[in-house]
């Protein structure tokens, strides 16, 4: 699995998952959060997304295969899923990501469900 992403408008330019920390995550229906620094713990195959909000903040894992493209100039990661779908993903759990082999599989299944494939 590749650990870098093609940059919009420049197919020869690639950036790593950790370079995306702090980028806005743009769902198909608007912004849904930011790439969290905890992404360094789960890269290269997933990013941690902080869905924002003071009381309702939730961190979720986003598989890199879901990312459509990265707009480096605007520091935006584009994901062809709805805001609600991303926010409804299983909560990021630092312990389970290491000890539970089915944890990432459940997350991947969550994202496959909306796309139908």
Observed structural traits:
single chain; globular; 4 helices; six-stranded mixed β-sheet; 117 residues; alpha+beta
Given the structure, what is the number of helices?
Answer: 4
The separation of the N and C termini measures: 18 Å
Task: State the order of secondary-structure elements, H for helix, E for strand.
Answer: EEEEHEEEEHHH
Which strand order does the major sheet show? 6-5-4-3-8-7
Number of strands: 8
Rg calc = 13 Å
> What percentage of the residues does DSSP assign to strands (E)?
25-35%
Could you please describe the fold and organization of this structure?
Helix content is 22%, strand content 32%. It has helices at residues 39-42, 83-87, 96-99, 103-115; strands spanning 4-7, 10-16, 24-27, 30-35, 46-50, 59-63, 69-71, 76-78. A six-stranded mixed beta sheet has the order 6-5-4-3-8-7. The longest helix has 13 residues, at 103-115.
Q: What is shown here, in short?
A:
The protein is an alpha+beta fold and 117 residues long. It contains four helices and eight strands; from the N terminus they run E-E-E-E-H-E-E-E-E-H-H-H. The mean pLDDT is 82.
């Amino acid at each position: 699995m590749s650990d870098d992403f093609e940059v919009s408008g420049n197919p020869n330019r690639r950036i790593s998952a950790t370079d995306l920390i702090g980028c806005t995550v743009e769902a198909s229906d608007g912004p849904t959060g930011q790439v969290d620094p905890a992404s360094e713990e789960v890269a290269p195959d997933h990013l941690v997304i902080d869905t924002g909000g003071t009381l309702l903040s939730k961190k979720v894992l986003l598989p890199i295969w879901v990312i459509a493209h990265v707009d480096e100039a605007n520091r935006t990661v584009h994901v062809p899923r709805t805001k609600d779908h991303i926010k409804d993903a299983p909560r990021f759990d630092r312990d389970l990501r290491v000890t539970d082999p089915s944890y990432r599989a459940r997350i991947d299944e969550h994202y496959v469900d909306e796309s139908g494939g």
